[in-house]
Amino acid sequence: MQVRGMAALVTGGSRGLGAALARELAGRGARAVVSARDAAALERVVAEIRAAGGEAHAVAADMGRQEDMLPLAGAAAALVGAIDLVVHNASTLGPVPLPLLLDTECEDFLRVLEVNLVGPFRLTKALAGSMQLRGRGLVVAVSSDAAVTPYEGWGAYGVSKAALDHLARI
């Protein structure tokens, strides 16, 4: 896929796969917005991207907080223009060590769903209208094999990723 000139938003971009995706997209000419909760870690990733000649901007946000989603969408568009590509990479396992599903506190289960499923849904809703009006745009959901394989102790995470997979297919 040609990404040169695209406006891309990568959540969970302060480390790991999200940071690698942001580096790759910017390295191929995308105007990248990188988001995560840790502003200092985001700034380090953005500095690396810029030092390599790419365009990147940091916007701190928590995917599990409803009040962060519209400001994230708005800030991203203000920085790089209408978003062409959103990569839902942010996720949480919940408390570690991971408890059995029946031992998971309801509040912890809810937090995992808020970050891994509801946050991506809210952010997509905030961005998809512009994509639809322009007749282009791509939403990518990063998942896990825990979405299809019921690992003992990975209950809340697995449920959230299975639901995210289904949401992405719809």
Give a structural overview.
The protein is an alpha/beta fold and 170 residues long. Helices cover 49% and strands 15% of the residues. It has helices spanning 16-27, 39-51, 66-80, 106-134, 155-169; strands at 7-11, 31-36, 55-60, 85-88, 138-141. The protein has a 5-stranded parallel beta sheet, with helices on both faces. Strand 1, helix 1 (16-27) and strand 2 (31-36) form a beta-alpha-beta unit. It is globular. 43% of the residues are buried.
Write a brief structural summary:
The chain has helices at residues 16-27, 39-51, 66-80, 106-134, 155-169; strands at 7-11, 31-36, 55-60, 85-88, 138-141.
Number of distinct helices: 5
Strand-pairing-aware structural class: alpha/beta
| Content of β-strand | 5-15%
User: Biggest β-sheet: count, sense, barrel?
Assistant: 5 strands, parallel
Head-to-tail CA distance between termini: 22 Å
Provide the low-confidence segments as ranges: none
How are the SSEs placed, and which strands pair?
Elements: E1 7-11, H1 16-27, E2 31-36, H2 39-51, E3 55-60, H3 66-80, E4 85-88, H4 106-134, E5 138-141, H5 155-169
Parallel strand pairs: 1-2, 1-4, 2-3, 4-5
Helix pairs in contact: 1-2, 3-4, 4-5
